Amino acid sequence: MAALGRAVRARSDARVVAITGSSGKTSTKDILAALCGRVARTVAAEGGHNNEIGLPLTLTRIEPDTEVVITEMGMRGLGQIAELCAIAEPQVGLISSIGPVHLELVGTVENVARAKAEVVAALPEGGTAVVPAGVPELEPLLGRDDVEIVRFGPGGDVELESFDPGERAVVSFRDGAVVELPVPFTARMQASNLVAALAAYRALGLPLERAAEGSAAIVFSPWRCEESPLPGGGLLVNDAYNANPASMRAALEHLVDRAQRRRTVAVLGEMAELGDDAPRFHEEIGRVARELGVDVVVGVGELARLYEPDEWAPDAGAAIALVRDVVEPGDAVLVKASRALALEVVAESLAGAPAR
Fold this sequence. Notes:
Strand content: 15-25%
Distance between the termini: 27 Å
Structural class: alpha/beta
Number of domains: 2
Order of helices and strands: HEHEHEHEHHHEEEEEHHEEHEHEEHEH
Number of strands: 15
Low-confidence stretches: none
Largest sheet: 6 strands, parallel
CATH superfamily of the largest domain: Mur-like, catalytic domain
CATH architecture of the largest domain: 3-Layer(aba) Sandwich
Oligomer: single chain
């Protein structure tokens, strides 16, 4: 598969973007694909095609007239991003975030940063690295002077000026450029991903004045902050695809923000692959939920007991019946967990529609 992907890539003059990160990489890919798709012939990774099989599947979809290829790269250890980049040969590398993920495999957040920064090391001379601003673990790995380093986020080269959920976002660049875009999403975490995607869009040489043409058409992959109505004016936020401490905190903040006057229920499964510090991370998220004023926390999985939840279930199957009893008409409900828990079935049972 790698040989096939490499062979097709070698025949193409398309500009290739490699997106990696501890969280947000698929959503950032979805946003960038929507922005690019209106102004260039674009191929983008489908779903979570981000490994040694998924990457070649993306590359083999390149056609002779393809202008932009957006790839996604996952990591299960040091050296893997470098191997994927050797196949894709990206000119733009984007790191969406750095955080405590896969610690069972790489040990420390510093090693997470080292693994993700392999995308920067793989860039050709004159390439562009788009990275989050203010990440101390990442900064020592950004010493190349033959590539452009573009930092996004507060204090960076590209920042979010304002965000009206479900309406518009305004993004500014250090050189004075300002872009206003209509947005179909309500989560502030997705607005951060939009900023990263816009930085990559510009690095591809695409016209900023046309970015708004694609932003209204953004469609996220399943189970990423999907919102649907519940009885009695309630709201379901299905963010069940995956979880780590940073994304769990962001999802809880989003739940409280979107709830307005509704009672809040957070159905939180355990977070996987956090290594020896897993108990501490779960205890911290439990504290975050209480500090934010979440009314009811339902824990799912053994480690989820450490959230000190109001209710607990051993697995997704048991959680379905429990959550149906807990949730009342008019509630705002968040469902989130690591992929191993498959909590989308709980969201499906609440929404009355099959999980995609």
